[in-house]
Amino acid sequence: MYSIDRKSPVLVTGATGYVAGWLIKRLLESGVTVHATVRDVTAQHKLKYLNRIARTAPGTLRYFQADLLDDGSYAQAMQGCRVVFHTASPFRLQVSDPLSELITPAVEGTRNVLNQATLTPSVERVVLTSSCAAIYGDNADLSNLEHGMVTEESWNQSSTIDHNPYSYSKTEAEKAAWCIAETQQQWTLIVMNPSLIMGPGVNPYMSSESFQIIRQMGDGTMKAGVPDWGVGVVDVRDVAEAHLSAAYTTHARGRYIISGYNTTLLEMARQLQPTYGKHYPLPKRILPKFLVWLFGPMLNPAITRKTITQNVGYTWKGNNTKSIGELGLKYRALSVTMNDFFAQLIETEQLGRESRVPLKGRD
Fold first, then answer.
1. What CATH number is attached to the domain comprising 176?
2. What Pfam families does the annotation carry (predicted)?
């Protein structure tokens, strides 16, 4: 079990993000001083959820304005910090300009933050939020891996700026991080590679793709069915715990696949059936691949026919034994993740059928 250092402040970039929200909550509840960077410190509507936590937590929350593309903008926030959590990176599948909207912010932002870490004498460890998207590109790629399973040794070699640009952005950003880490000896780099992150947000109105997926499961968009698409899923609260452990576990090294379950879109929806199946139009069947191939790009331009061909009908397997053995992670059940997430949508009236089913509490 790790021991949290409460004496030194830590920096969390992208403080209003999905993972950052739960990470900051854990840090504040542990009595840590958090330097939280945001693009606009005056945007109180985005900060109110963190402020609510900070009002009663023993830790201290301090905001700093910074921009991923502004060289040197993290200098003030990083002063005195022993640990830097770099979580800031855009997660959007549907973009008009992948270079400016995904790749440049991910890569240049990582370079700016890590270069600043080298210039800041107090920094001893950097925990980077990467993704399993940096490990593999399409499910079909797994057939080329040993045991058909992604491990920390694998790298995404199939994504490009034109095909899976989000995955390409995560791959290039992590590669840049390792290049910078190898040029210095002041701090160690620990990389988190989570699979698809699900679960309730500290901010219940996030724009993350994860919210879009579960919202569509409940609002009727997926009523006809879902593709036979294998995915890895992990609870956002477990991802935050993994970051915390990586920061304060002395022997932590390298990359860690953070993934609770090898599953599918349909199996994710099935977790909701016992409680919500009678009240919401949840998907109950697999759509034929030819229909997904034919109509998928029309319904969601971000899902190309090449992406459908390379992913639908393929399973996904990830090896999480390193995260369990070295970081001590205990993953939440998939049913807990999905039901807590869905309950949050109902509670915040994002599905339009709020009065039909009683709510259950969340951890």
1. 3.40.50.720
2. Epimerase
